[in-house]
Each structure stands twice: as C-alpha cells, then as structure tokens.
Write a structure and sequence with these properties.
The complex is a heterodimer of chains A (304) and B (237). Chain A has one domain: Orthogonal Bundle (ABC transporter involved in vitamin B12 uptake, BtuC), CATH 1.10.3470. By secondary structure, chain A is mostly helical. Chain B has a domain of 163 residues: Rossmann fold, CATH 3.40.50.300. Helix content of chain B is 32%, strand content 27%. Chain B has a six-stranded mixed sheet with strand order 6-7-8-3-9-10, with helices on both faces. In chain B, strands 2-1-4-5 form a four-stranded antiparallel sheet, with helices on one face. The chains are: A mainly alpha (304), B alpha/beta (237).
Amino acid sequence: MISLIQNLIDALSLGSLYALVALGIGLLFGILRLINLAHGDFITVGAYALIVPSTEAVAQLAIGGFHPILLLPSIALIVVILALLTDALVFRPLRRAAQPSLMIASFAVSYIIQNGLILIYGARPKNLNLWPALTGQIALGELRLPTLQIVTIVTTLVLMIGLALFLKRTSYGVQMRAAAEDFRMARYLGVRGNLVIGMAFAISGVLAAVVSLLFLSQTGSLETGLGVPLALFGLVAVVIGGMGSLVGAVVGGFLVGAIVTLLQAYLPVEMRSFRDAFAFAFVIVILLWRPSGLIRAKAFDQRV
Amino acid sequence: MALLTVENLHVSYGGVTAVRGLSLSVNEGEVVSILGPNGAGKSSTLAVIAGGVAPRAGRVTYAGQDITGGRAEEIARSGISLVPEGRHVFATLTVEENLAVGTYMHKGKADIAGVLERFPRLKERRDFPAGRLSGGEQQMLVIARAMLAKPKLMLVDEPSLGLAPLIIDQVYDILLDLRRQGMSLLIVEQSTSRILKHADRIYVLRGGAVQLEDTAANLRDGEAIKRAYFGFDEGAA
C-alpha cells in the first residue's frame, strides 16, 4: 500500500514535469503549428543560467545563489528573452514557411544553443546542488513524501491553474485561443498576430524556466543536453494527448509520467534498462488506438 | 467620394492567376455586390482588400489611404471587416467569446449584450462552444462578430452558401439593417435573385476580370447578367 502510494506520487511528480514541457510545446504548436524541438534547450539554458559562465569543472553559483523570490523571476526572464529572440531572429522571418521548414529550423536552433553552451560552459557535466533543503522528506504517518516531489506537483498545479485562468478570463487569453484555432480569421478581427505569437513564446519560456529549476533540483547535474530527453517526452505527450489541445498536452504529460514510473517500479529488475523501449511501445499502442490523440483539438461535431 | 477603390488588381497563387486587372469601387453607404461563377476571383478580391493576400499588382485605397498589401489586423482596425466564406467560427470558444474577439481592438466597453438582443438564438446559446451551432446560427454568429468590430465597410463572402431559404432571408434582413445604419457593404454572391433586389450596384466577374458593371436597377431583368456570367457572345445573344 505504502509503496503503491509512493509510486503514485512518483508518477504524479514526473508527470508534472512532462505536462509542463508538453504545455510549452503545445502552446506554440497551437498557434504557429511549430513543433519546437528547441524547447528542451530553453530548459537547459534556464539551468545553466544559474552558474557563472566558465569552462571550469566546478560550478560556481551566480543567479543560483539568489533568494528564490529573486531567482525564479531572473531565470524566467532569461529564458523568456531567449524564447523571444528565437522568435524574432528565426521564426518571424519564416512566418509563411511550411510546417516542416519550421520544425527543421527549430532543430537548428536546438543545435546552436547546445553548441553555444558547450562553447561557454564546456562539454563536461557539472554537479550543482540547487536548494538542498528540498531534498528532505515530509513524514505523514508511515508515508515519507520527498519534499521536492510535493513542490513539483504543487508548482505544476499552480501554473496550470494560472494558465487556464489567463486563457479563459483575460482578453489576451481569449485572443490566443482564437488565434490557435483560426489564425487568419483572428487577424481579420484585429488580433495582432505577432503579439499573440510573442505571448505564446514568452509563456512557453516561463514554463521551460520552471521545469529547468525543478529538474535540476532532482538530478543535481548540469549537462548541455539535459533538456533534450525532456523535450522528447514532452513532444510524445503532446502527440498522444492530441496535437493542438492543451488539455490533451497535460493529460498526455501525466500519462507518459505514469507509464514511465510504473514500468520503472514493476518491470522485472533485469528488464528495467529497457524501460523507455517499453514506454514507447505503450505510446505506439495508444496511437494505434487513437491516431489523432486522446483529445481531439477541434469540435468536429459541427452540424451543417 | 468612394470609400473603397480597387484599381487594376492582379492576384496569383503560385503560377495560377486568380484576378487579372480588376477594378471596382464602393461608395459610402452603398451596397455593392460581386457576382460570378466559381473561380471568377471573387474571394481572392475580398482577401486582398482585407489584407489576407498580397496582390501581384494593383492598388487598394480605403478612405483616401493606400492600404495595398497591408497587414490584416491593421486593415481590420482601420474599419474593414471581412466575413469570409465558410463560417469561420472559433469552434472551441463559446458564442460569447467568439463575439468578444471582434471587440478587443476598440477601447471602452463593447456592446455584446446589445448585439445579442438582435440575435435571440445566439443569446440562448451564448455559453455553447460555437462549433456546436447549426450552420445558420454560425452564419449569424460571424456576422454578429463582424458587427461588433464596428466597421465602416463590411466584406461578406457568400453569406447564403449552404443555408435554407428562410435563414438566408434572415441573414439579408440583418445585412440591410446594417446598411440602414450607414454601413457600406461589399457582398460576394453566386445566386443573383436576392442580390438584384438588395444591392445598389453590381459587378459580374468571370476569369478574374469584371465583365459587366451596372446599377442593380438596370440589370433587373437578368439577361445581361446571364450573358456576362456564362460568357455568351454579346452580339450573338
């Protein structure tokens, strides 16, 4: 019983991270039809921004030494600026380009960021213990809950509620949803295309920054490719959730988190190293069952 | 003075030419209609005026300003509202949210409630996702949404397409109401009977160019339109 609950918490916390990544990717896909493979590298930059730029093996905290109240907005700001720069320099000139061209461009951005990081920080992984206080546990009777997992789950909930309120209750949120559904029609109604896209990049950047802090607190290790597997799992979550649906992205994120965690817990020990192969087999099964994802993006049940 | 002037417009997509040398104008308070068969260049012309498509050549002047190739959102903000063909509702947004999208470009409080009074069916379903509405309701919604953008000129692309005659009458009632309030309208249609009754002036397009231009009163018998529409040789007919 105890171990089941523990596994569920593990699944929720890993699912939270994937859901945040999937939201960041899903938002941009919804509006730009861009599959942003560089999202993982936005996450990596958020993590590296914590330390002093240098190729030395030992990481020295820079922003990472700030009080969390200052640290969080600083990292968010850096990643948002990176995301907006990416839009301005790469994706804005490609506005009329076909969808595959956008994806290939994001692939290029991903490589440029990774190699830029190697140039500045060196290729060797570095240890970084951010927020040691979070590595403790909260005891609830016999249950021991890792503080970091609880923080991860709560942070994700807060961000998702905040995003939902923004999209539902504010005029910019409604404009973003309208643009995601029919970009051209939204512009015919006076919605400023570049503004809406910029907001999507900015929100995507904030989500990436939060993931980088949560993820780094878990692993304690910096490397220039740390965001790549996160982006891969996030993209998988977006696809099985249903491309273009944010609810689908969240559902997909938690589902992928649950699959990975449960496989890790219940696969026979000698097969655990093949965990991801099993996880992706599950993904294939889901896609065979529902090729357009769990939640369809548009209301197809229109009457004529 | 003309509110809208289109001069010598050429539009092509890839290698295909949709509009070749089209000119037309809409005066203030006027209802002008563009008639023509499929592929005559009607929708392309509206798209260029609204900033959705950049023309290969030609000039669009609105309220004395050259807006050729302008951005769609800026043209919308200057007072031109396009109701495109095919009822582009935002399907997952509620009816009320759909209406709200048209209002954000104006400062101050929008009169969504007032517009809903004129569309009782939409008022009943204000919290429904727009994708769940019937075709007629969706057509009402896109017109109501365009009204809330408070345009001086509304471009309406085939408002009667796929609708029952009774609904078409309702749509035209609303359009004529807008005209009474001083709005100018440029309406694209494929069917001639209704438009002959309601429009002031008519352009008949075929092959991307104007074949015929006259007042609706002069064209009422429909013979000249038929000739222009189907391309019969004028001398022979």
